[in-house]
Every structure is written in C-alpha cells, then in structure tokens.
C-alpha cells in the first residue's frame, strides 16, 4: 500500500519520541503533503527532509465561493437562518483547538451586551469529540444552532453574512 503523510498543523505539544516516530514513518512514506508552506517548512525541519519533498495542497476557498446569494424562498440563505437576519457561520471539527468554546462565550457576551441584533443567528457546522459538551454550553445562548456534518458547506458559507474562525491553532 501507498503511505502518505498529511501535515495539517504545527504541533508544539509533540515530544522527542513523537519526532522519532514521525521520522521513522516518513522514511517509509511515498509522499508528504502539507496544507500550507508554513506547515511544510515546519514539517521539513521536524521530519528531517528537504522542503522540496513536501507537496503543498492549500485547504482554502476561492473568493468567488462567497458571491452573494439570493434571498428567494428556498434559497440557502433562508434555509440557513429561517429568516433574513444576520447570519454568522463557523465550520470545523468540534475539537478544543478549533476554539468553539470561545466563540460561544463571545456570542453570549455580545447578546448580553446587546451588541448584536437579538435575531442574529450563529450556525456551527461540524461534528467531533466535544459536540455534546458544546451543545450543553450553548443551551441557554440565543440564536445558536448546531448543523452537524454537512455536504453543502459551500452553500452555507455563501449564505452567511460573516464567517468566524475561532481556532487557537491552525495549519496556516
């Protein structure tokens, strides 16, 4: 079988024994892929390989993906919000490093301070190990809805007024 290593972030938590194991696996890999040039540089240094041996495949979206959408009946905008209020979206695996907890705290504070319209909507797209905990934290926060795993992420992003990336650690 082909072995492909995917480097998605810069992991400061790794210890010396993780690096030994990473280098051992790298020596047997057919390809190394990174999500950004920054991650490729870090991975090259940590894995003991030349950066030219790492293929960078950016995991981003083109600006054209965010062209405005219609507010006609049945449009993604109305499906997303249920109305035409201000819609905020975040997309990501529900893990600690994605920062959803901080986003929920900020959203609650904005509502408490009446800094955003009462009808504003926060939609969280994704699933993950913290889903039940985050859902429990969001129970009393107005306008928050978890959309789970979706295949129409592009349409959801286009329908939003604002995308939020609350991550505390990202690969770029």
Characteristics of this structure?
172 residues, alpha/beta, four-stranded parallel β-sheet, 7 strands
How would you describe this protein?
The protein is an alpha/beta fold. Helix content is about 35%, strand content about 15%. It has 6 helices and 7 strands. The protein has helices at about 15-25, 35-45, 75-80, 100-110, 130-140, 155-160; strands at about 5, 30-35, 55, 85-90, 120-125, 145-150, 160-165. The chain has a 4-stranded parallel β-sheet, sandwiched between helices. The protein has a 3-stranded parallel β-sheet with strand order 1-2-3, covered by helices on one side.
How are the elements arranged and paired?
Blueprint: E1 4-7, H1 16-26, E2 31-34, H2 37-47, E3 54-56, H3 76-81, E4 87-91, H4 100-112, E5 121-125, H5 131-138, E6 144-148, H6 153-159, E7 162-163
Parallel strand pairs: 1-2, 2-3, 4-5, 4-7, 5-6
Gist?
The protein has 172 residues and is α/β, with parallel strands linked by helices.
């Amino acid at each position: 079988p082909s072995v492909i290593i995917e480097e998605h972030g810069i992991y400061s938590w790794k210890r010396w024994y993780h690096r030994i194991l990473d280098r051992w696996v790298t020596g047997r890999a057919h390809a190394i892929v990174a999500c950004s040039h920054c991650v490729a540089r870090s991975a090259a240094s940590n894995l003991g390989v030349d950066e030219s041996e790492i293929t960078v495949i950016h995991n981003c979206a083109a600006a054209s993906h965010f062209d405005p959408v219609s507010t006609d009946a049945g449009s993604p905008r109305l499906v997303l919000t249920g109305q035409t209020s201000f819609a905020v979206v975040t997309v990501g695996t529900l893990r600690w490093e994605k920062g959803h907890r901080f986003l929920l705290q900020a959203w609650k504070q904005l509502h408490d301070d009446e800094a955003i319209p009462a009808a504003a909507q926060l939609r969280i797209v994704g699933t993950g190990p913290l889903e039940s905990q985050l859902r429990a934290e969001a129970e009393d926060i107005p306008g928050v809805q978890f959309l789970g795993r979706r295949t129409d992420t592009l349409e959801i992003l286009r329908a939003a007024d604002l995308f939020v990336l609350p991550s505390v650690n990202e690969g770029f």
